[in-house]
Amino acid sequence: MASVEAAPRPAGTVTFLFTDIEGSTPLWDAQPAGMRLALQRHDEILGSAIAEYHGHIFATMGDGLAAAFQTAGDAVAASLDVQNRLADETWSAGIELRVRMGLHTGEVDERDGDYLGPPVNRAARLMGVANGRQIVMSTLTAGLVEGASNIETVDLGEVLLKGISEPIRVFGVAGMGHDWLDLPLASTQQSAGNLPRPNTDYVGDLADLQRRVARLSQARLVTLTGSGGVGKTRAALEVGWLVLDEYAGGAWFVDLAPVADPDAVAAAVASALHINPQPSMTLEESIVDWCRGRRMLLIIDNCEHLLGPLVDLVALITTACERTTVLATSREPLGVAGEIVIRIPSLDTDHRRELFVQRARASAGGFDPTNEDLGAIDAICERLDGIPLAIELAASRIRSLSPTELLERLTDRFRLLRSGPRGGIERHQTLRATVRWSYQLLDEQDRRLFDRLSVFAGGFDLDAAEQVCADETIDEFDLADLLGDLVDKSMVTAERHESTTRYRLLETLRQYGEERLDERDETAEFRARHATHYVGVAAHIGQQWSSPDQLDADRRFGREWDNIRSAHHWLVLTGDGNACADIVRSVGCHAWARVRSEVREWAERTRGLLGSECPASVLSEIAYWTYMDGNWTDAIDLAQLAVADTSDLDGAALGRSYLVFALQSAARADEIPPLISGLASATNDPAVDSDQRWRSAWTLFQCLMTTPEAGATLQGLVSISEELDVPIYNAELQRMRGLAHLSAQPPDLGASITELAKAIEMTEAVSQRASWAHINLAIAVVLAQEPNMTAVVRSSVTAAYDGRNWAATALGMELTAHVLAHAGCAEEAETVVGPLLTRPPGFPGDMADAFRADIVDTIGEHPDNEARQARGRAMDRHDMVKYALGALDGLIARSPPG
Which residues lie closer than 8 Å to 149 by C-beta, 6 or more apart? Predict the structure, then answer.
């Protein structure tokens, strides 16, 4: 084919094309010589087609390239032509190149022969969600080619892309003889984990960051270090989204900035991960137990002030959890064996300018820098050592100062701070000097408010700022304007959250404000006001819990959790046990639903302050988490103390429920009958809180599930549920309906399966506690001998194990052994049943012994049975679950389709 003259470099509004070869690594491994020839031909085809359609190749990376086109039509036509030529090519045996492509259009900046700006990154990320042979494009590009006779588009809906804060609409491309390959997009982000989405696109050398973390998934611990304000948190979030597809267990984010108490580190990590404390384990051991076996990324942010306890926890995780990667951010390395330290540098010259201009435009709409302005901006950014936070603080002043004026004032300010004959500020002082300069430019009212805002942990809303910070020196009606001033000057960040705006001080700025508040000798006053406010907030949200607004209350608890934790910590330090008890009482149900086990520590500290005056509600919280630990004797003692408290009927009703469960687990069921009447009384007593009435009725049903009285109790549950209309309780009621059919004489298995399937759907939508619904459904499906029972059992075991609900997992092992035995997999069944035979069956009522006996009888006698059982008993529980799931997978693979 004749060569085509290279097109001039597009400028202004540009359409970018990014390409990559899907699955090239195994091809290179298998046929390196063949792939070298194939890649050479690939480059020829792409280069020729792009040139023919007036495109300009500006970068190559790996097995792909990036090109720019002046028109979207040329970019799309070139992409389609390339796919056609690749499809017509005859490749070497065993080699087939499947190229994926992404297109996006936007205004770009150019510098030193390179393109800068979000459109470049966005095109690359669009390419990342395509499969081989697919072309995808953004709404902007699709709009520009709409109506073209030779181009067809396929609306793929909104897609979340790596590193992009909001979903964008994506279109597939076909035409010119190339058909759309109808496969789901390959790498859209999943909901696994809790990784927050940044509010802005990443500014920095993304390619360099990708190179530096290219082997992250093969590491145990990577620490991003750097000075304050350099962007460690933002880089960690970007990395999380970039590599999320490599972690089937998700990416989990733990922010330690709001945690002041070193003893609360493990509790904060456990709360972020929704970890159940495990029997006979410390909380740290429970975290390790939860992480073990998961292919997950654990991002721990802002570590430097809690290095002591954190280092011990991270060392435990990295030693025991070979598939878990910890990504930490800290101003200094953690010092754990095997740690890989990556220093986050200041921004390079191009990205410094990009960040400044972005933030300046946000502060002063329409800011369009001249060449003189750009020179001053570069000098400002150089003066600020390329530190992103310092640049943002400076850029926020563009509303009132030109870049040249800003440079002059910064230079004058920094001249005052120079030390020594060399006349320079030590680099680590640059950010602090910039913060001080920005702070001193505030008027006195702004400074006073900024200092007071430092008492908030995490985010806060306007009402909280007014309640905590307003007094005779700051009028409540002026506070919104003052807060807006601080946002405009980048001293406070603002983020729209549902129907309200949440504000936050970046940690470096919060620490500075905290120091100034201490200099004013006002720390105690405003920490106390903060604590008082959040005692009230917790109480108000707690009252909403047993209402149709429960999910709103649940979300608000999540938003305010850092502030509530901080308030409780302050109240403990000041010895206000009664206010501490109010917080514990208010947050208990949310902690139960979201597995926030740190509430146990709050309750224990509260008990330490109140001693014998500790109310039943606090004792009940300790009893519950002690029961979850598997320490049934202490749980019984604590619950009995709660039941005896006649001054706290709500707490006593809660304690009675936990007492029943602890007695059942401790094999002391003979002590339960006298408590049944108490449960019935609490269920029907209007003086008892409606939430506790529900809990009492729920416990009573489970006690009576296999008795004739169960039907009447279920009706009581229905009545209370209709009265409350609480989503989480409605889901639990649905599960109780399924259990009622399962325990009926004779069981109605069809109805049970229908009800329990619905219960799973309802529970997963509102709570972290779907394990039991999955296991209950599996029991019904196995008893009914449904054709899909192997898959259902596998799903139930996975759900229970993922939640580290070991009681539910044990029942899943019983079901697994049953399925394997009846499928003729005697060796696998005997191995799974081995450890089960050392403890009582877990099923309720008469079903237990019969089910276990059926497994043993079905396996039958075999000379290797004892050895097989011994092999199972030699496995730890993680290995046993892995073995059981593998055996079920083998059975599913051998099953005929349908």
Answer: none
How far apart CA 650 and CA 229 sit, in angstroms, is 48
d(CA 87, CA 282): 59
Burial class (CB in 10 A: 0-12, 13-18, 19+), 107: exposed
Q: Give every CB contact of residue 334 below 8 A, 6+ residues apart in sequence.
A: 221, 223, 303, 307, 310, 311, 314, 328
Residues 778-789 pLDDT 10s: 999 999 998 889
Pairing of strands 251-255, 221-225: unpaired
Residue 373 has a pLDDT of 92
User: pLDDT band for position 162 (50/70/90)?
Assistant: low
**Could you give the count of Cα atoms lying within 13 Å of 549 in the half-sphere of its Cβ?**
9
- Cα–Cα distances in Å, from 887 out to 811, 823, 824? 16, 11, 12
223 and 238 assigned to the same domain: yes
Length of the chain equals 898
Residues 155 and 34 in one domain: yes
The residue among 396, 419, 441 that closes a domain is 441
Q: Which of 23-27, 146-150, 550-554 has the lowest mean pLDDT?
A: 23-27
Within this chain, do residues 266 and 360 fall inside the same structural domain, yes or no?
no
The Cα–Cα gap between 742 and 688 comes to: 31
Residues in contact with 218: Cβ distance below 8 Å, sequence separation at least 6, in sequence order: none
How many independent structural domains does the chain possess?
A: 4
- Give rounded-to-5 percent helix, strand, coil for the chain: 60, 10, 30
Q: Say if residue 210 is in the same domain as residue 143.
A: no
Residue 387 has phi, psi (to 5 degrees) of: -80, 120
Contact partners, residue 447, CB within 8 Å, separation at least 6:
439, 516
Q: Which domain holds residue 870?
A: 774-894
Give the range among 545-554, 597-606, 764-773 with minimum mean pLDDT: 764-773
Q: Is the pLDDT of residue 441 over 60?
A: yes
- Is residue 649 within 8 A of residue 685, CB to CB? The reply is yes
3-state SS class at 243: helix
Give the tens place of pLDDT for each residue, 675-701: 998 888 888 888 888 888 888 898 998
Q: What whole-number distance in Å separates Cα of residue 889 and Cα of residue 505?
A: 50
